Each structure stands twice: as structure tokens, then as C-alpha cells.
């Protein structure tokens, strides 16, 4: 008999050939049965390989879900019986590895009738920074049935890629705050960066540095406060620190309350990573990617002005030159500053001769935030009203100092001095007593000596000094105004004419500073009083007469006397005891 060739997968096949009699006369002798065995053919237990050529899996040690990958193993052709497939992991040179994976070799069993199984490979999570690494997973043997693929029948290797891990190229962050600083001498910003994790490869780090004035946001900050923009920070392979000193531009103003903000923007690997490796997960920017350096008084070189934005100083002119001390203040104390000032008159009464100098400079030393500007007031004996002038700050130097626009002027007022309103009195060369009969008036002069620059008001008051009343003189009070420039004024007092008999009366005429307003108060000098005498009037002592005017008297005889009485009468005034004398005339 013949065995036909086919492609049907078959295991071992046994056939029995038996002889038997077909005719009666045939004789069958032993052995009557023969066994025919057809060995297994067409790989009934299968050909073992990976599912595809170029099979590759990537493992991520740093990911809890990416540390394990499965590699499908297939059994092509027959699936009779179970097959135990051995495998191992090799490095790129073909050397078996014993680390890096939880299991670096083993077996996988493909059950009978099952066409495939998988090899699970798990990378070990360690703390060692490593670049990407390449491995080969190789199928090495099959037991229990089946065979390994040969040639083009299938792939016996798969590629295993372990990504870079544990930040092998580093994490870039700013060092501790204590390592960042701003200095006044030299005037610089000092920054330090650190590289944590791994230090494999060389890096380039870009970062920005801006000055943020008080009240501004970081986005409003300026980078031009530095002389030159900061270059990229370069980390050589193995380097873990970088420090840089950046010069602050000469004209930069740093104000108290401002800040310098530095920010790491990007980090890139400038050296090559392993060929064919996935995009590395590092280098990266750390969470401490920004630092803020505050500007305090010792670092600031801010605006310079007067201590008060509305500083006013009132001084009295002395008999000798005197100094007016104006305090200057700076927002900060960094660097030496020279402040230029000038005096500008405000009131028309101020002249340049009122001060010793109308301009000058003041120096504020490094480390100081205050200085004194001294203005010397000249002394004179001229009567003067209030004089006002402003002291203005015109400039400061060097250019990294500036004038505070809200406190660049101070007002100084020299109070009126040397009695600008003068001295007022009754006429010193005139009479001190005036005699005025009823119905007449007295014109009394007042004079002002010294200053006539201001208005002064005085009151002339009439009081009785033994008189029966002030109503005999009008007005009893007269207000006299000395205007600017007035040196002589007068008051007219009228003695009223009445019919009432009166003795001589004396009135005091007094000069007083008016109480109408303190602004017009006068300074009085002697004489401040005169007297006004009104002679007695209207027959103050009376008018005497005899009554009756005619009497007839008989001539007396030797024995008889005749007499007549005359009454003496006094009309008009009754002041004083009066003796009346009489005589007889023919």
C-alpha cells in the first residue's frame, strides 16, 4: 500500500493490516495482522515564535501602570499537546541579564489545543537615574512538543525598551532663598540654580529676570533694569549647580516695596540621548521655578524728596543769621546721592537778600536715607511782612537716584519782623493837653513810626477824669485805621454846646489797639493819652442880683430909724460858695 503526501497536520498514525480468506480454498497463516505506523507530520505540535517580526514593547519604570508589558508567543501549524517555551532577557550584546527586571528568564506553557500564550516582563522600580536602555527578549527552547521557528517561519526575539528613569537628565530649580541675593556693592543680582535627580548629559536653561515696581504685577515688570539680558544657564554633564551675577544698569531705580522676580522658563538636553530611545521624560523644570527678591531700604535707591510732601516751615527773623533745617528723605539707602536745590520766591515781599544763598547741593551718604538741607536766613532791621519762598529740589545724581515728584518742594515763611506795622502814638511833638470851650472841637494828631507795610487799627477812647460824663465830648470812641503807607492820622473831638452850667471838666483821651482783629493789632508807644479840658461855662457859679430893684426909704429922725431889706438872688450855676459885695452909690 502507499502513504499519500498531504499538508494536513497529523500526529502519529497507526494502521492495522489484516489478512483474511476470501475463498474457501485459501489458507491464511500467522501472522495474519501487521501494524503500519505513520509518524507525526506537518508539525502537529506547532512552530513556536513571537506573533510578529520586530515586536517591541516599551517599559516605564517611573509609571505604576507602565512597568509591565506582555509579549504574545504564538504556536503556528499544529496545536497538539502542550508546549513549554523557555525565554530569557539579553542586553544589546547578547549577554543574558540578571538585573533590571523582576524575572530575567523563565518559561511559558502553551496548553494543548491553545495557539498562543504571553511572556510578561516587569521592570524593577529603583531609585537609580538611568538613560533609556535596550534589551532583547529571546525564545530559547521548547519542551513537551513543538519546535522553535526557523528562518522566515517566525521571530524568536522581541525588542524591550526601558525608558529613562528617575529624572536621569535632572530637574532644574532655584536653590534656597538664602542662595539668592541683591547686592549694593557691586550692584548686582546673584542667582543660583540646582540640578536634582540625575546629572547625565549637558543642559541649557533659559530664564528671565524682571524688576517689579511697587503696585505692579510680574507681567508689568521690566527686564531692562539689568545691563545685559541673562544668558542661558549651561549645565555640563555631571554638573549640579549654576550661579550667575548680573549687573544692575547704572540708571536703574529700585524702590522700597519693589522686587526682582526670576523665573525658569525652559530646560533642554544639549547632548545626545541613546539612539532610538523614546523622547526622554527629563530634563524638566522643577516646582521651585520662580524666586522673588524683595527690595528693602538697604537695597533701594528710590526717590529723594522732603520728609513731608507738604513741608512748611515758619521762622522768625533773628537779630543774627539763623539756619532753617529741612529734612530730606530717600526711599532706600543704597549709594551716595548729591541733591541740587534752588530757592524760588513766592511772595512779592521776598528778595534774594533775605537768604545767604539761593542755591546749593546736599550730599546723602551711602547707607543713609536722610540728610539735612540748611537754608541761612539773613538778619536785618527792616520792617517786613511775612515773606514766603520755596526750596525746590532740581536734580539728583548719579542717574540711579531720582527726585520724588510728590515731595520735591518745601515752603519757608519768614514771619513779619522788625514791626512791619510800625509804632503808633499821639503826636510826640504835639501838646498833651487841649482846652476846648463848648461848641468847639479839638483836632488831635496820631502818628506811626517804623514800618508802614501793614494795616493797623487803633481806638481813641474818651473817658472822664472828674467830669460829670463823657456825653459832653463826641464821639466817645473813634476807630482810626492806618492803611499801608499811612504815617499820620487824626481824630476830631467835639465838645457839645449846652445851657447847663458846668465847672471846668477834664477828659482823658486814650489810645488803644483795636480788638476788632488780631491781624490788625497795633503796637503802641508813648504818648498813648492826652487830656481835654473844657472850661467852666454857662455861669457855673451863678448870676447875682438884688431884689427888688427899687426901694423907698424914709429919712430917719433922731428918734426913728427907717430901713428896707434887699434880697440877693443867684440864678444859673450854683457851684461853690460865693461872697457878694455891695455898696451904695449916688
Summarize this entry quickly.
0% of the residues lie in helices and 44% in strands. With 586 residues, the chain is an all-beta fold.
**From the helix content, strand content and strand pairing, which structural class follows?**
mainly beta
Largest β-sheet summary? 5 strands, mixed
Total helical segments: 0
Strand order of the largest sheet: 4-11-9-6-7
**How much β-strand is present in the residues?**
35-45%
Whole-angstrom Rg: 65 Å
Could you say which overall geometry the principal axes of the C-alpha atoms support?
Answer: rod-shaped
Distance between the termini: 230 Å
What's the number of extended β-strand segments?
A: 41
Helix content: under 10%
Mean pLDDT: 88
Unreliable residue runs: 1-6
Task: Give an overview of the whole structure.
The chain is an all-beta fold and 586 residues long. It is 0% helix and 44% strand. The protein has no helices and 41 strands. The strands form 10 sheets. A 5-stranded mixed β-sheet has the order 4-11-9-6-7, with no helix packed on it. Strands 12, 13, 14, 17 and 19 form a 5-stranded mixed β-sheet that branches. Strand 13 (181-183) and strand 14 form a beta hairpin. The N and C termini lie far apart (230 Å). Residues 1-6 have low confidence and may be disordered.
Amino acid at each position: 500500500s502507499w502513504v499519500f503526501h498531504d499538508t494536513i497536520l497529523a500526529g502519529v498514525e497507526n494502521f492495522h493490516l489484516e489478512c483474511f480468506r476470501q475463498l474457501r480454498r485459501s489458507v491464511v497463516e500467522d501472522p495474519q495482522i501487521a501494524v503500519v505506523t505513520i509518524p507525526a507530520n506537518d508539525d502537529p505540535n506547532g512552530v513556536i515564535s513571537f506573533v510578529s517580526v520586530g515586536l517591541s514593547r516599551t517599559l516605564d519604570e517611573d509609571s505604576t501602570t507602565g512597568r509591565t508589558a506582555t509579549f504574545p508567543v504564538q504556536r503556528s501549524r499544529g496545536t497538539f499537546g502542550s508546549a513549554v517555551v523557555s525565554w530569557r532577557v539579553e542586553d544589546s550584546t547578547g549577554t543574558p541579564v540578571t538585573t533590571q527586571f523582576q524575572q530575567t528568564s523563565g518559561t511559558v506553557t502553551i496548553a494543548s489545543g491553545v495557539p498562543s500564550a504571553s511572556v510578561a516582563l516587569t521592570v524593577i522600580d529603583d531609585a537609580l537615574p538611568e538613560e533609556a536602555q535596550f534589551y532583547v527578549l529571546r525564545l530559547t527552547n521548547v519542551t513537551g512538543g513543538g519546535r522553535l521557528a526557523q528562518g522566515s517561519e517566525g521571530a524568536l526575539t522581541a525588542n524591550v525598551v526601558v525608558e529613562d528613569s528617575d529624572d536621569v537628565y535632572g530637574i532644574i530649580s532655584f536653590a534656597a532663598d538664602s542662595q539668592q541675593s541683591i547686592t549694593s556693592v557691586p550692584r548686582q543680582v546673584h542667582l543660583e540654580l540646582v540640578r536634582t535627580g540625575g546629572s547625565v548629559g549637558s543642559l541649557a536653561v533659559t530664564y528671565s529676570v524682571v524688576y517689579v515696581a511697587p503696585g505692579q504685577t510680574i507681567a508689568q515688570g521690566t527686564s531692562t533694569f539689568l545691563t545685559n539680558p541673562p544668558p542661558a544657564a549651561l549645565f555640563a554633564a555631571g554638573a549640579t549647580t549654576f550661579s550667575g551675577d548680573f549687573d544692575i544698569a547704572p540708571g536703574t531705580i529700585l524702590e522700597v516695596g519693589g522686587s526682582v522676580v526670576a523665573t525658569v522658563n525652559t530646560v533642554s538636553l544639549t547632548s545626545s540621548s541613546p539612539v532610538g530611545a523614546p523622547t526622554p521624560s527629563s530634563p524638566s523644570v522643577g516646582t521651585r521655578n520662580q524666586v522673588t527678591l524683595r527690595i528693602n531700604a538697604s537695597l533701594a535707591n528710590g526717590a529723594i524728596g522732603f520728609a513731608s510732601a507738604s513741608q512748611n516751615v515758619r521762622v522768625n527773623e533773628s537779630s543774627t543769621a539763623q539756619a532753617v533745617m529741612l529734612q530730606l528723605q530717600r526711599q532706600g539707602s543704597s549709594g551716595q546721592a548729591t541733591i541740587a536745590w534752588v530757592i524760588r520766591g513766592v511772595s512779592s515781599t521776598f528778595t534774594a537778600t533775605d537768604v545767604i544763598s539761593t542755591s546749593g547741593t546736599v550730599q546723602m551718604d551711602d547707607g543713609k536715607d536722610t540728610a539735612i538741607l540748611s537754608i541761612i536766613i539773613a538778619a536785618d532791621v527792616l520792617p517786613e511782612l511775612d515773606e514766603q519762598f520755596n526750596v525746590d529740589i532740581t536734580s539728583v545724581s548719579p542717574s540711579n537716584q531720582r527726585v520724588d515728584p510728590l515731595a520735591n518742594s518745601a515752603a519757608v515763611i519768614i514771619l513779619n519782623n522788625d514791626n512791619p506795622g510800625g509804632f503808633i502814638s499821639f503826636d510826640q511833638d504835639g501838646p498833651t493837653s487841649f482846652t476846648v470851650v463848648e461848641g468847639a472841637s479839638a483836632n488831635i494828631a496820631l502818628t506811626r513810626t517804623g514800618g508802614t507795610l501793614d494795616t493797623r487799627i487803633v481806638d481813641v477812647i474818651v473817658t472822664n477824669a472828674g467830669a460829670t460824663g463823657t456825653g459832653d465830648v463826641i464821639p466817645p470812641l473813634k476807630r482810626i485805621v492806618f492803611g499801608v503807607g499811612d504815617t499820620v492820622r487824626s481824630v476830631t473831638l467835639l465838645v457839645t454846646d449846652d445851657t447847663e452850667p458846668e465847672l471846668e471838666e477834664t477828659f482823658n483821651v486814650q489810645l488803644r489797639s483795636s480788638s476788632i482783629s488780631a491781624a490788625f493789632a497795633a503796637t503802641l508807644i508813648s504818648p498813648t493819652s492826652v487830656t481835654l479840658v473844657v472850661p467852666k461855662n454857662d455861669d457855673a457859679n451863678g448870676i447875682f442880683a438884688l431884689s427888688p430893684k427899687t426901694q423907698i426909704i424914709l429919712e430917719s429922725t433922731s428918734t426913728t430909724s427907717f430901713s428896707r431889706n434887699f434880697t440877693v438872688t443867684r440864678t444859673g450855676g450854683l457851684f461853690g460858695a460865693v461872697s457878694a459885695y455891695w455898696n451904695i452909690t449916688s
